[in-house]
Structures are given as structure tokens and as C-alpha cells.
Design a protein that fits this description.
- It is built from 19 helices and 19 strands.
- It is an alpha/beta fold and about 550 residues long.
- A five-stranded parallel sheet has the order 3-2-4-5-6, with helices on both faces. The protein has a five-stranded mixed sheet with strand order 7-8-9-11-10, sandwiched between helices.
- It is globular.
Amino acid sequence: MRWTIKPKPQPEKVATLSNDLQVESAVASLLVQRGIETFEEAKTFFRPNLDDLHDPFLMQDMDRAVERIETALTNGERILVYGDYDVDGTTAVSLMSTYLRTRTDLVATYIPDRYDEGYGVSFKGIDFAHDNEFSLIIALDCGIKALDKVTYAREKGIDFIICDHHRPGKELPKAVAVLDPKREDCNYPYKELCGCGVGFKLIQALASKQGETPEDLTEYLDLVATAIGADIVPITGENRVLAYFGLQVINTQPRPGFEAIIAQVKKDQLTITDVVFIIAPRINAAGRMKHGNHAVELLTETDYSKAVEFAKAIETYNSDRKEEDSRITEEALEQILEKNEIERYTTVVYQDSWHKGVIGIVASRLTETYYRPTLVFTKSGDKLAASARSVSGFDVYNALEACSDHIEQFGGHKYAAGLTLKEENYEAFKQAFEDVVSNTIDKTLLTPEIKIDAQIPLSDITPKFYRILKQFAPFGPGNMTPIFMTEDLQDTGYGKCVGDGTHLRITVKQNDSDSFVAIGFGLGEKLPLIEKPKTFKAVYSVDENHWNGQTSLQLKLRDIK
């Protein structure tokens, strides 16, 4: 594990902000590291406000999209809301269809079948629209590369509005409107929205024409916050505002579908992390194991008792998903050993029977094991389909682009992507991917890294310090949980392994400081490093322990040296 301490911010900036906010320099330093240097910027950070959301009409084509939808509403046209089968897609479809149903009954939803149609806009979906007399399709979280599909739809008299956040190709589809902040000609101030976030900007624009403000749309923000967490987009700027208010909705007035999931897991006061690990996998499980329609049914259901039934079904899909991904991960690890591919710069594995719905999760698990750019392939129709995952700092999308001669189609982001190719091109692609990565990756990126915000003495950790740290939430990319490093620590003699010996529980102090309980999940093997009279250094975050009605601060260990 590499420990990297982030550069110290300029002392003058820290001193000025510390004085202006009346906070310790350790807090001011964390803020300046996050680009927050003035009282006003700190106010925006600590007190998110829906008034801070940008004007949706700053997005390229927004006026066209609104005009086309208003025409459809006025003329009584049938509108099909189309989205991908993952969390971002199903939440976006739920958001858009729920909003449009407040204006018209002529709305239906369409989620492609992961196995039959694959990712994104499909010819089958367009045929469905044509057969059922839909004249407008609003595509969410997909469509930016669907040039041939959009042309096909136009020939059938169907218009498209695309709301996407993936990187466009060289050419844009010939849609009525293409909303994507990553378009090169789009001057929208915030580029990191997820697909559901782009959908929210569209309903914000539509609502503004009705004299409504973002405050009138807060009931939709539970969906947006869930998509932000699940899609691992930065929780900065506009996403921070949307996630902040979305979490409030989840924790105070969740829609029946969320309420039913939360009731099953018996959890209160969810954080973004809980959304990522509790809500998102269950929504995803529908599209992975059965069909994404089940997720949309759950998220749009208004009757709580029906939502409970949907949630029970989804819980079953989630259990099945866990079994599948454990089995396939095991088989993939065996394949790597059998083929003697441990020393490579990439992991590329393939088995024709692997469940297409879980290969993305398996790719993440393999990345945790071998920590290198990873692709997991399975058979999909007459082609092979793969999910790609990367390591921090390496752009897997660019690497795939460099291998595009061997690929049928691909799309995605810097750290996660999907692709299809012909089976006969698999071995050539596998070698090309290995060559590209081995020639371009900085080799230090192949060792997992802990980024440390600051080195601090234990005496800095006070109830006031932690109260302010809590207000840094919601945490996520661009605003991660603060990580600290402290040297010259000693265990007070109570260090032990817990949980089958895999976890570490110690009580630490530094010189004459107060002592803190520190928990290290998966760090049981480090026990010899802390046994008296040794001193050691540790990397950790600060959190609270609630026990027997008492609350105390504790350290959550990340590593020890």
C-alpha cells in the first residue's frame, strides 16, 4: 500500500480562512485542499442551497428539448421514456416518467433487456415505439453514440431527445436535442452530472416554464442522490447540492420504493455510502438478474404495500446476484492462475457461461485482488460482451480507444466502460490491451494508494473538530472522507484481533494525548507491528462509536506501518 500525503496548501490562505471562519487551521487546511478559499465558498460548501443550481437553459439544446416536449404535451402525443438498466438509467426513467405523468397520461417507460438487446438504445425499442404509436422518445443515461438508431427512428417518424453524460463520439446523433454537458460545444458550467442529473435539469427547465422552482421538485431528489452515489460521479458543485437534498428526502420522506428497501435492511439515517452499498445494489439487481423494469416499478410505485411486494422480489434477485458474483469471481481467479497470468499489467478473462448481469461486479472484485486494469468477458448473442474497470489514475476508456480496431462498440468513463467484440477478435484484443496498458501506465499506479489529507497530532481530534468534519458530508469523489496520518503512536496494551482474527482493535495514544479506540477492518495481520514497546504510524479517518447509549470518537484505521 502506497501512502501519499497531499501537498500542504499555502499557509497564508489557510491562516486567512481559519480566521474568517473561526475554525482550527487543520479544518481550514482541509477546505483549501478542496478548493474552498473564501468565506462565501465555505458558506456554499457547508450550507448547500437549491438556489445554487445552475440555470438549466445554459445547457446546449435545452431550449429545443423543452419546446419539443411542450409541443408533444399540447398535441396529445405519446411519449416513451427510455433508459439504461442500471441504477442511473432506472432512476432517470423513474424521475422523468413520474414528472411527465403530472402533465399527461400518454407516457410509458422502456428499459432494454440486458441480454436480448444489450446496452443503450435498441432497434427493438424503436420498433416497440413505432408499433405503439409513440412519436417522441426521451432517452436517459444512453443514446450519445446511437447515431444509426436515431436515424432509424426518424425514418419511422419518431423524434429523439437524448439526456446523456457519457463522452460523445466524433459525431452526434441527429436528434431534436442532445443534452450532454460533455459535448464540446456545451458551455454548461458543471460537467459531472450523472444521467439522472441531466434528466433532472430537463424537468427543472420544464417546471420553470410552469412557474415552478427547484424547491417544488425536491421530491425527485431521492432518485438523483441515488444515481449520483451509484454512478460514482464527483460529489462537488451541483452534484453536492443535489446529493445533500436528496439524502434529506431519503431520510425523511422517501418514496414508497425506497421506504420498503430501508424497512427491509432496518437502517436509519442513510449516508451516501449506505445508498451506494444498500439501495443501489438492490436496484441494480433487478436489471442484472431479471429485468430493469422491476426497478422502475419499485421506484414509481405510490402504494406502499405494493412497493413492499416489489422490494421483496428485488431482495431475492439481490441474493441470487451475490451468489453468482461470488462463484464467477472464484472461477475467474482460478483462470488467471491456470493461465499463469499473474505477472501481466492487465486482467482479461472470459467464460461463455458467465452471467452477463454480474461481470461488472466481478471486474471490480478482480481489480481489488490484482489491482490492474481489468476486463471480464462473457458470451452475448453471437458476440462477446465485457465490463471494464480501472485503477485510480489510469484512463481505461482511452486504452480501449487505442484498441478500437478489435472492438465492435464501446462506451463509458475513465474508470468503468463496456464493450462488445467478435469472438474471433478476442485473443488479438487481449494482447493489444495488454500492450497498450503496459506501454502507457505509470507503474506506480499498480500499487493501491492511500491519499492522506494531512498529518496531525491526536490532540487535534476533539468533539468540535469532528462536528465540523461531519458537515463536510456528503462524501464521494472530489470530496472524500478526510484521511489523516499520525506518527509515534503506542498501543496502551489492549490491542487484539477480533472477528475470526481478521480485524484489529487497539487503543492508541500519542505521548500524553487522550487515548482513542481504533478499529482496523482486515488489518488483523498487523498486530505484531503495534505490540509494546513499539511505536508506529497509522492512517485513519475519524468516526463515532455508539455503544450502550454512549457516543465516543474512534479512529477507523486504513493502514499501519
